[in-house]
Design goal:
Blueprint: E1 2-10, H1 18-29, E2 34-39, E3 46-52, H2 55-66, E4 72-79
Antiparallel strand pairs: 1-3, 1-4, 2-3
């Protein structure tokens, strides 16, 4: 089992478009492998905790499912090691 935190910047940020952020959060939370999603303040707008069978599956979740979401501008993946 591989677990990671994915930091995400969303298009438009969260200031004036909070509904867009909430909609994007809902879409992300429905992706298989996504365990939790949090809206956050700071350099990133959302954080998702992801669980996958292996690194290949994690890569698929992040590149094919998260990054293809029209609300996601960029991501940074942090693999949890301990």
């Amino acid at each position: 089992m591989v677990e990671a935190l994915v930091l995400m910047k969303i298009i438009g940020g969260t200031g004036e478009s909070l509904d867009w952020a909430k909609s994007t959060k809902k879409k992300v939370s429905e992706i298989p492998g996504v365990v939790e999603v949090f809206g956050v303040l700071g350099g990133y707008d959302m954080v998702a905790r992801i669980q996958a069978k292996n690194l290949e599956e994690l890569t698929t979740i992040v590149t094919d499912r998260l990054r293809s979401n029209p609300g996601i501008e960029s991501t940074m993946t942090l693999i949890i090691v301990f």
